[in-house]
């Protein structure tokens, strides 16, 4: 049985802690599962009479379902809870907890077994990629859930008894945006003066921006030093990839790259350069210059230049525009970066990469942004923020690869993915190997909300960069 510290994994939720001798873990063998089911039967069939004969249901046969058990110092199972995806076909990141049961001798506010199980369920749901975690709670137990930070959705009747629909406020998307983008507004304020400051009207805060007085578009990105040290050749590839994605979001055709490499020695620098050169050759864009410094910690940044007479802004959307996600679903997780970096580009041909890169230029939407560090939802939030709007994203409609959970896909770096906004019904151009799907809309207000198959929407984030309308 895998064990963990439920206090650490639940971000300090309030409520009575379980006894120090109580452990909570996943029921991984038949003995644990049988003990959990006996406890459920004693609680829901014999004691409460909620079910006649058995409380088993289809969720028990779902291979994705997880059963947790609490044990006392003697190893006796004193409590159990179950969690599973709410949708039967594919995991959309919507999970539901159920069958919370505590043995009679272990009950009571002071024992804390029920609270420990709920906290553990929350931690596991988030670990498994949940962006929404619900429970249908018997009304007498609702105060416990409220103390633990759960929020009420509304009253309901289940199995003939009063229940309260409740939800755990998963903040994965908001935490990612806060970590990667929230400081930008105040931090970059000194650059915002003048008509072209920080990109100018429509392009405020865009990763790529028009160069005043020309048809040039410029973009620059630095790669995390830890990634340069850990995987220098892949870092070189990604430095080109992210810059060309930035140009592609404006509809610009890339014409040149420049790199700035720092390395402890020539051997290490050559590994970075090989990655940059391989990517430049794959996209057929020349590296025309740059700077190399040896005897220093690893670092890498790349600048890309492109041309377009009509650049597409990131802040060109308005309420009522349809949101389309265009993503290359090929490839898989980069080894060593599972759940964080999807590699869809290293196996593509030059023809494929150029078709992806020209997609925005050929579609000419009202607004576009490439998905990067803030993930897909955070990127939609930046587009909406720059457009002076809010947004709703239909989770079920987002094109998602089979090898990724929805929670990971909406918060990872996806290789190639674009978020565009345009008039409803206006179809985007073909995008080579990528898949395009309308999956949301821009709205009045601010922030991004996620729309689920049951019709409910949940908040994902409010502001992203704080830069305001572009």
Describe this entry's structure for a reader.
With 470 residues, the protein is α+β, with helices and mostly antiparallel strands. It has 3 domains: 6-170, Aminopeptidase, CATH 3.40.630; 173-195 and 313-470, Alpha-Beta Complex (Phosphoribosyl-aminoimidazole Synthetase, Chain A, domain 2); 207-312, 2-Layer Sandwich (60s Ribosomal Protein L30, Chain: A). The chain is 27% helix and 28% strand. It is built from 13 helices and 21 strands. The chain has helices spanning 6-9, 30-47, 113-127, 142-147, 172-180, 184-188, 225-230, 232-250, 266-283, 350-357, 359-363, 375-386, 406-409, and strands at 23-26, 66-71, 77-85, 94-102, 132-138, 151-158, 161-168, 208-210, 216-222, 253-263, 287-294, 299-307, 322-327, 332-333, 342-343, 367-370, 390-394, 417-422, 435-443, 447-451, 457-461. A 7-stranded mixed sheet has the order 1-2-3-4-5-7-6, with helices on both faces. Strands 16-18-13-19-17-20-21 form a 7-stranded mixed sheet, sandwiched between helices. Strand 4, helix 3 and strand 5 (132-138) form a beta-alpha-beta unit. Helix 8 runs parallel beside helix 9. The longest helix has 19 residues, at 232-250. It is elongated and about 80 Å long. 47% of the residues are buried. The model is unreliable at 1-15 (pLDDT under 50). Residues 24-171 form the N-acetyltransferase domain. InterPro entries: Acyl_CoA_acyltransferase, GNAT_dom, MSMEG_0567/sll0787_C, MSMEG_0567_GNAT, PurM-like_C_dom, PurM-like_C_sf, PurM-like_N, PurM-like_N_sf.
